[in-house]
């Protein structure tokens, strides 16, 4: 791979920047989250709030790109807090489904509100226009990567 300044090099820099941004933004957001909530817990609540419905632990684990064991731990914590409900799948009595509760929706909203000052500072520093212009490109990259994951 000898394309340091060409297309492959640019694409590598692009992916490197995304990785660094993910790390920095994740750390900044996690510091702002209320009640010791982790990004993993917020991610599950946000996912369920956005997409709704009941999700199996395995489907959630796949969506979050974590092991089923890690997801089981996260679901257990969220369930103990009353943020999610775990019940039987009506179509398959052996399977479980995870749904967000009203308390979970409120916790997600509190987390979004807690992160708002950090996000507002980013918008002011970068510009609302640049952020809005960048979203379609990021969505395209996300869709591509999502379609290619195993």
TrEMBL record:
Q: Name one GO molecular function term.
A: DNA-binding transcription factor activity
GO biological process terms, alphabetically, are: response to stress
Which SMART domains does UniProt cross-reference here? HTH_MARR
> InterPro entries recorded for this chain?
HTH_MarR-typ, MarR/SlyA-like, WH-like_DNA-bd_sf, WH_DNA-bd_sf
Q: Where would I find the HTH marR-type domain in this sequence? A: 1-143
> Which PROSITE patterns does this chain map to?
HTH_MARR_2
Q: Which Gene3D superfamilies match?
A: Winged helix-like DNA-binding domain superfamily/Winged helix DNA-binding domain
Q: Which domain of life is it from?
A: Bacteria
Q: Which PANTHER family match?
A: HTH-TYPE TRANSCRIPTIONAL REPRESSOR YETL, TRANSCRIPTIONAL REGULATOR, MARR FAMILY
Q: What is the name listed in the Swiss-Prot or TrEMBL entry for this protein?
A: MarR family transcriptional regulator
Q: Which organism is it from?
A: Nitratireductor mangrovi
């Amino acid at each position: 791979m000898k394309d340091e300044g060409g297309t492959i090099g640019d694409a590598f820099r692009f992916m490197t920047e995304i990785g660094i941004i993910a790390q920095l933004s994740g750390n900044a957001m996690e510091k702002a989250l209320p009640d010791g909530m982790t990004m993993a817990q917020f991610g599950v609540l946000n996912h369920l709030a956005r997409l709704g419905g009941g999700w199996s632990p395995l489907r959630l684990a796949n969506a979050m790109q974590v092991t089923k064991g890690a997801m089981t731990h996260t679901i257990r914590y969220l369930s103990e807090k009353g943020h999610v409900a775990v019940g039987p799948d009506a179509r398959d009595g052996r399977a479980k489904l995870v749904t967000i509760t009203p308390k979970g929706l409120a916790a997600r909203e509190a987390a979004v509100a807690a992160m708002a000052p950090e996000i507002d500072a980013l918008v002011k520093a970068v510009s609302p226009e640049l952020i809005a212009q960048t979203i379609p490109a990021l969505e395209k990259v996300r869709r591509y990567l999502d379609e290619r994951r195993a």
